[in-house]
Amino acid sequence: MGYGPKEINPNYSFLMSADDGEETVFVTNDGRLLCLNGEKGVKVWEDNWMHDSGAPENTNYRLSIDKFHNIWVVNETYAFVRLHKEKAWKSLVQLIREYQVENVPQPLMIWDVKIDDRGRIWCATDHEGLLVFDLRHHAMRQFMNNKFDESSISDNTLRTVYLDRDGLIWIGTYKNGVNMYKEGSRSMHNLELGDINAVAEDNYGK
Asked: Pseudo-torsion of CA 104, 82, 74, 150, nearest 10°?
């Protein structure tokens, strides 16, 4: 711990980490990203773009790294991505505009983001259900609750989205349990478990 170029500031408060097989990245409670070498106990790099851009402190940041090594951060309102090739930051809203995706709900509050192997962006939103952006084809798909259809998603306010190793999509809702969706099917499968804030998978795929 210390204030040198490769040292970790002892005042930082870490919220969570993500690993893509090449590096382990941490996010602090004031929007800083740090890549750490655990074996040597040193900092590889630090990115303060979110913090310097006015990111709120003491906020629940969610962090993930996709297969393209892009780093995604969600802070209870907005979603940002640190693009690996460009080494540049963009908001999800910027990407949507650049790729000219139409009929996107406004305003858009995002609680969680995951990227699948095809590069599509799965977003758990507040009041707008599940949004899936296919930027390459300038397209968006929206899953909304229909109270007259039990096979629809069980809530429009979602907290988390998780893509498992079998290709199933798990969606945690605010008050109406967890939904499981398999691409190609016409329905969601719901487990009534109340308020779901996180979904994870063990080493056995369960």
From this structure: 50
Q: Indicate the pTM of the whole model.
A: 0.85
Element housing 52 (H / E): helix 49-52
The pairing of strands 121-125 and 189-191 is unpaired
Instruction: Choose among 105, 137, 102, 101: nearest CA to 119.
Output: 137
> What angle is formed at CA 83 by the lines to CA 93 and CA 59, rounded to 5 degrees?
60
3-class DSSP state for residue 102?
Answer: coil
Q: Whole-angstrom Cα distance, residue 111 to residue 20?
A: 21
Cα-Cα-Cα-Cα dihedral sign, residues 26, 28, 33, 36: negative
**Contact between 92 and 101 (Cβ < 8 Å):** no
> How far, in Å, CA of 121 to CA of 114, rounded?
6
Q: Name the strand (E) or helix (H) holding 95.
A: helix 92-98
Tens-level pLDDT at each residue, the chain (206 residues): 555 567 788 889 998 999 887 789 999 999 999 998 877 778 899 999 999 998 888 888 999 999 899 999 998 778 999 999 988 999 999 999 999 999 999 888 999 999 999 999 999 999 999 999 999 999 999 999 998 998 899 899 999 998 988 888 999 888 888 898 988 777 788 877 656 666 666 565 55
